[in-house]
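Homework help board

Subject: predicted structure for assignment chain

Our instructor gave us this sequence and asked us to write out the predicted structure in token form, then describe one feature. I got the tokens but I'm not sure how to describe them. Can anyone check?
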Amino acid sequence: MFAQTLCAIAQIFILGIPARLAAVWFGPNQVSTATSIGVFGNQVGCATGFLIPPLLVRNSESLSEIGKGLSTMFYMSAGVTTALLIIILIVFKAKPPTPPSHAQMLIEQGNNQENYFTSLRNLFHNSNFILLFLTYGINTGSYYGIGTLLNPVILHYFPGHEENAGQIGLDLVLAGIVGAIVAGIWLDKTKSFKPTTVGIYFLSMICMIVFTFTMDVDLIWVVFITAGALGFFMTGYLPVGFEFAAEITYPESEGTSSGLLNASAQTFGIIVTIGMRALMNQVSVLSANITVSGILLVGTIMTAFIKADYRRQEAGKSAVEYVDHDNINVNITDENTGLKMANMNK
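My token output:
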């Protein structure tokens, strides 16, 4: 339990990395895709968690045999993460030699005044961020609850289908990986953060409703399709939420905003998981799934009230300064690097 607690603490930091890393290293037309690739990496880890443990830890009546399998799995995991740590310490740099965007350049110029508690206070004085903080927690927490209790839900409707239950979990994660990448590319192409957020949230709710009311049709392939669609949109929401938060909270650190979003997701994940389990035990599996659908409806409505205040985009626009009719200074700023490329006097 002590080791699990350490891993859980580490996860909080890891989950917040993609948005911050993307903002520091990538330009305005790449940042959302970079964030989605970071989320993609996390989801690959989840998919690996569905695949590898059953191969290494065989079901057995012998506790010593199970113990050997667990030891092999944990030593392999420790070896991989230790190797990654060494590579990061040797190779990884804090930031590129030049800022990747005008918005990031402005942040670096004012970085000496940055204070975590001031940033925290600013975030919680931002009504748009508070709404996103709650809605992100509802959506992602619901995803955590569904993922945690997927096996008992599937086995309730399809007794004896343990192998299919694991494959449906893998389907949920793999479809989510695709959804995260597609969402990131879409944001970089369109810059439509609010419409995309509302749209994905709404489709997550619709997929949850369809998943709920098609479970009893006694067709396992239907569950594969509905679970895949649910994973596609609910995981696709993760990078969208990070990027939307970065837009409406600029110039606050992306690490702080994404960290708070993850804290909200973990909190709601605990609430939804415990609530679903209680409903499944005391009422029915159907009532648990209907409750999650209702929660997602509330989240969709709340998301619609978030204003499209794209502060980071505004800061990233090229600056053109006109002094007077006889002496015009034109500052041309490259949008990918944020650097002044020329200063022309006319």
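Reply (TA_rk): Your tokens look well-formed. For the description, you could write something like this. The CA atoms of residues 28 and 101 lie 6 Å apart. That's the kind of observation they're looking for.
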